[in-house]
Write a structure and sequence with these properties.
Layout (H helix, E strand, L loop, with lengths): L1 H5 L3 H15 L3 H14 L4 H13 L3 H14 L18 H13 L7 E5 L10 E4 L4 E6 L4 E5 L5 E5 L5 E7 L5 E7 L15 E7 L5 E6 L6 E6 L5 E5 L4 E6 L2 E7 L7 E6 L5 E6 L3 E6 L5 E3 L11 E6 L3 E6 L6 E7 L6 E9 L10 E4 L2 E5 L22 E6 L2
């Protein structure tokens, strides 16, 4: 099911079927060839990457197998490979024993953030949030109920803007806090979804004082506008999770700014460096891409050892470092990556939160000076096959605060 849900392409399925045939017939050379090809088409796919580690082992390539297994463990420490006979050739190696210890270490609970309040609207399904200090106003988006709500210090929610056609994802404001910019996308988890809406997305510009809609920005095609960032001179950049493209609002039009379809797979959080000379954008499979705004030259960030590039959703820049929310790994974690002077390489990292039961699952985040805020328990996992929420399985949205030292 996982294979077809994520891949879904007949060519990929044909390659996968051939790899299974090669494995069953013990043609391990062909199995490795096909495993490499599948892994290049869809990096970090649980099945393809596991099979690649297996194929390396069966072909006597011990170091390569251990390296791929380590990548898997860093992304999901529940992967059960210990008793798989495919790895008999490497089980006596020290590297294999190190992987078993890494699995245990990955389960360590680390707690840095603390719960600040719980929202009153249980089925809100929040994603993005923002605090407008000039207006003394907290706002949250709603995936389920297609709106923006405000909430007070006790968590009581009040409808703030409801003229949204689709699920509301990200919330950002201009430098003067005159306008609120929000991304909206049609997904099955929202109320009133129909198949005809699939792929429709828009960006809304709202006057904060009057709460009136100023303009809707739309574009044809299949899109999921998941996040956006606004520069000090009010340039707006939007990430698209359906097609790996960055859009920009330019001269009151929504235009394609950077086409990453040959580079990326699934774009998520987007942020700017302090000088606003670079955009950092997360790819759910490959890591983080840095893009020079003037030249549009892109660079995949180098990651330190012993961390996973996979599953980065929320992304914020703070004092020459990137704070990431990794909800596509097991266990879910929040990590701070320190950048070098070029801002193209990570030179150190600190795990701030890890393996916390309440994290199910955090997504986007917002910064207020040296504090980062996010919702810890957006209920993505609690929709049934008809995309109805089972409210008996989750608690009211919890806002967490993380003090960055």
């Amino acid at each position: 099911m996982l294979l077809f849900a994520i891949s879904g392409f007949s060519q990929t399925k044909a390659l996968y079927d051939k790899s299974v045939e090669a494995y069953k017939s013990k043609d391990y050379i062909q199995f490795l060839k096909l495993a490499k090809e599948l892994d290049s088409i869809r990096p970090m796919h649980p099945t393809f990457t596991y099979n690649l580690a297996s194929a390396y082992s069966l072909n006597g390539k011990k170091e390569e197998s251990l390296s791929v297994l380590k990548t898997l463990v860093l992304a999901n420490n529940t992967i059960a490979f210990e008793d798989d006979s495919d790895f008999d050739p490497i089980k006596k190696d020290k590297g294999f024993k190190d992987l078993l210890e890494l699995k245990v270490f990955q389960s360590k609970t680390i707690e840095s953030s603390v719960e600040k309040l719980s929202l009153s609207e249980k089925d809100l399904h929040p994603e993005g949030l923002i605090y407008l200090d000039k207006h003394k106003l907290w706002l949250s988006s709603s995936i389920r109920n297609k709106k923006v709500v405000s909430f007070d210090e006790k968590g009581k929610c009040t409808d703030w803007f409801t003229d949204c056609s689709y699920s509301v994802f990200a919330l950002k404001t201009d430098y003067d806090q005159k306008y609120l910019w929000i991304t909206c996308s049609a997904i099955p988890e929202m109320k009133g979804f129909s198949k005809e809406m699939e792929g429709k997305s828009e960006v809304l510009k709202i006057d904060i004082t009057t709460r009136k809609l100023i303009k809707r920005y739309t574009i044809e095609g299949n899109h999921v506008f998941g996040d956006l960032v606004v520069s000090k001179n009010n340039d707006i950049y939007i990430s698209d999770s359906a097609e790996p493209i960055i859009y920009k609002i330019e001269k009151e039009n929504l235009v394609l700014w950077k086409d990453l379809r040959k580079e990326a797979f699934n774009l998520q959080g987007i942020t700017l460096n302090k000088k606003e000379s670079k955009i950092f954008i997360a790819d759910y499979l490959k890591g983080i891409l840095a893009i020079d705004i003037k030249s549009k030259k892109e660079t995949w960030l180098e990651f330190p050892d012993n961390v996973s590039r996979k599953g980065i959703d929320g992304l914020v820049f703070y004092k020459n470092s990137l704070i990431v929310i990794q909800n596509g790994v097991v266990p879910i974690r929040i990590v701070r990556y320190k950048l070098d002077e070029t801002e193209n390489k990570m030179i150190d990292f600190t795990v701030l939160d890890n393996n916390r039961n309440v994290f199910n699952e955090p997504a986007l985040a917002t910064l207020i000076k040296n504090k980062m805020y996010f919702f810890a328990n957006s209920p993505w996992k609690f929709y049934d096959k008809n995309f109805q929420l089972d409210e008996s399985r989750f608690e009211n949205p919890k806002l967490f605060e993380l003090i960055l030292k």
